[in-house]
Amino acid sequence: MSKLGVSVALALLLAATVATAQDLRIGESCDLERAGGSDKENFLQFDHELRVALCEQDPVIMSLLVGFPLRVNGGKGTTLISNAASLQARFQDVFPSAVRSAVLDEPVESVWCSYRGIMYGNGRLWAGVTMEGRYQLTAINLPDVETEEATKPKLDFVCDAEKHRVVIDLNADDTPRYRSWNKPRSLTEPPDLEVATGTKDYEGTGPCAHPIWRFQAGDAEFTIDRGGCFADSNPPLPQGYRGSLEVKVGRKSQSWTCY
Asked: What is the pTM of this model?
């Protein structure tokens, strides 16, 4: 081969090597080669199937993506999931909503790669590469359930009224929050109204003491009264009565029974 031919061959080899190296990049934080990977398309297929398995909570798909024994780290120590049957039986414990969301809310371009493996969701899931070049899930780091529950709003009262469905929950500082869906709006959609803070007081004494929540949104005032004791002269309460919802705007007000 002539010197020109050798030069051309070397140039083509170098270009192919560079192209291969570039082809192994997934976003700005992951070069699959650092994690031992050599095939970008195989990883993208693994990533797609992982997201489907998490979204549909499918243990069958997931069992084919896991490297057993799967290491699950949590606040109570480390558990090893040894086979597909165990994974299926404990799927909700191993992949709780916080873990699923950490992965599904993160685009594939945001995964992080190092010699330790491929990291999803800021460390919630770790994947690795086998000797045969296959990608598989190797470890799960569960969130601290107690910490997560402590910061999650706590339900305080719910009201299913004729025209509204209302949820009152308490923030971390015990401040009540008001959310309301106008019927027939689905609860799976954002609420029609949300008031971030309100007040919670008590009226009555002894066994008749009961909470009252009040919220203000512009000119509208929302009062939810769980109801206390009623005089014998009052008409009987509707079956399933839980309290009342009153909406007042200026001098006009309207109230409904909460079920």
From this structure: 0.52
